């Protein structure tokens, strides 16, 4: 699912007379104020009335937003759940079926087919499961909810613009619970910015046209910073001993520098020795290891979950021919209750863990790594029950 990090900047682009509608309060009052702001932004009153005529609050959207326990799984469990042999086989079939589309995409945008196939698989199972939430209802519900209103308010106004263009029906357009539409799940603002009529039928149809959906996804990735003809992730082997505190997204060295430190590609050679890369250990120094190149950072513009990003990037390499990872033998991690206890402990010590939610995100990893280093433990950012007891 695509959560744009620039949403707040878009929300603040309105003039002073178009002050942001506050979240919360009665939903009907919120709708009234959003309609007023839409008119102030230049939309015709009749269009605004028509757009909001069928809108209603959707409590199932709120429930789905709060129900994201799958992201609490560690990388090995999460990736093994999402990457099935059937998904790999379907990916091969889709690659062959739409080979000419992928060739055009790779030539024009420089986004490899494996990257798009992985998103297509994870987001909608190659278009089979696109979601049945009313898009406008979901966006308005999440904009009204006070957990992340600045993320979703701009998407409501983008949806109005999409409606004006004929690309959305407020009463019937459906998609994911967070307002994404189509085979690769794009938000209204992304569709306006990156939607492509790749099949030449005169319309951008992301729900029914694989060429439109895949090409639009590629254009969006380029807009987000994808660098053509560069790798994104490569599995490596690490030495038994090294300064584990240098691992993680914040530390970047050229791939050749990592080679000098004893890091070796698990198969083949370094894809780009000259590029900066981070050494990532999703389950510590005894689990799988990867070099993450600059394109890996673009994944976080698509989804902010570390475990999702790792899995999507890894699956893309599999679809491009990489072998199954070496799972290693990592120490057991923490269950949800233990992770919450860890986050509470780290927060009490002054760390910003990005919320006590039981999910091992990047901010929690940074805090864990700092404490491991302080305690003289391998600072690989992988929290274990023994670390929790030490803390």
From TrEMBL:
Pfam families in alphabetical order: PG_binding_1, SLT_2
A GO MF label: peptidoglycan lytic transglycosylase activity
Signal peptide (from-to): 1-19
Keyword line: Signal
Domain Peptidoglycan binding-like: 339-391
Gene3D superfamilies listed in its UniProt record: 1.10.530.10, Bacterial muramidase (1.10.8.350), PGBD-like superfamily/PGBD (1.10.101.10)
Domain Transglycosylase SLT: 27-316
Coiled-coil boundaries: none
GO biological process: peptidoglycan catabolic process
InterPro entries listed in its UniProt record: Lysozyme-like_dom_sf, MltB-like, MltB_2, Peptidoglycan-bd-like, PGBD-like_sf, PGBDSf, SLT_2
Record-given protein name: Lytic murein transglycosylase
Higher taxonomy: Bacteria, Pseudomonadati, Pseudomonadota, Alphaproteobacteria, Rhodobacterales
């Amino acid at each position: 699912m695509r959560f744009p990090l620039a949403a707040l900047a878009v929300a603040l682009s309105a003039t002073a007379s178009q002050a942001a509608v506050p979240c919360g309060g009665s939903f009907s009052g919120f709708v009234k104020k959003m309609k007023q702001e839409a008119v102030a932004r230049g939309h015709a009153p009749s269009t605004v009335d028509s757009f909001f005529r069928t809108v209603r609050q959707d409590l199932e959207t709120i429930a789905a937003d709060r129900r994201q326990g799958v992201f609490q799984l560690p990388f090995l469990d999460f990736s093994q759940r999402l990457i099935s042999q059937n998904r790999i086989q379907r990916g091969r079939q889709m690659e062959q079926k739409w080979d000419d589309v992928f060739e055009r995409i790779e030539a024009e945008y420089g986004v490899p087919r494996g990257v798009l196939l992985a998103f297509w698989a994870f987001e909608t199972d190659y278009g089979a499961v696109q979601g049945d939430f009313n898009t406008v209802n979901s966006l308005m519900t999440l904009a009204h909810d006070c957990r992340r209103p600045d993320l979703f308010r701009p998407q409501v106004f983008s949806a109005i613009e999409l409606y004006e263009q004929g690309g959305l029906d407020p009463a019937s357009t459906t998609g994911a619970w967070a307002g994404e539409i189509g085979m690769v799940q794009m938000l209204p603002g992304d569709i306006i910015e990156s939607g492509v009529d790749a099949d030449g039928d005169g319309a951008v149809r992301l729900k029914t046209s694989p060429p439109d959906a895949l090409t639009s996804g590629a254009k969006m990735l380029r807009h987000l910073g994808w660098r053509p003809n560069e790798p994104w992730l490569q599995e490596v082997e690490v030495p038994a001993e090294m300064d584990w505190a240098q691992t993680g997204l914040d530390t970047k060295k050229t791939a050749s520098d990592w080679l000098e430190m004893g890091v070796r590609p698990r198969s083949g050679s370094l894809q780009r020795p000259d590029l900066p890369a981070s050494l990532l250990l999703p389950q510590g120094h005894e689990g799988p290891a990867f070099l993450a190149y600059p394109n890996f950072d673009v994944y976080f513009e698509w989804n902010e979950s570390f475990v999702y990003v790792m899995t999507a990037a890894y699956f893309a390499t599999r679809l491009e021919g990489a072998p199954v990872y070496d799972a290693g033998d990592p120490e057991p991690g923490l269950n949800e209750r233990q992770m919450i206890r860890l986050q509470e402990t780290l927060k009490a010590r002054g760390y910003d863990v990005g919320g006590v939610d039981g999910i091992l995100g990047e901010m929690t990893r940074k805090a864990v790594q700092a404490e491991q280093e302080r305690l003289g433990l391998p600072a690989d950012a992988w929290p274990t029950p023994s670390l929790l007891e030490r803390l």
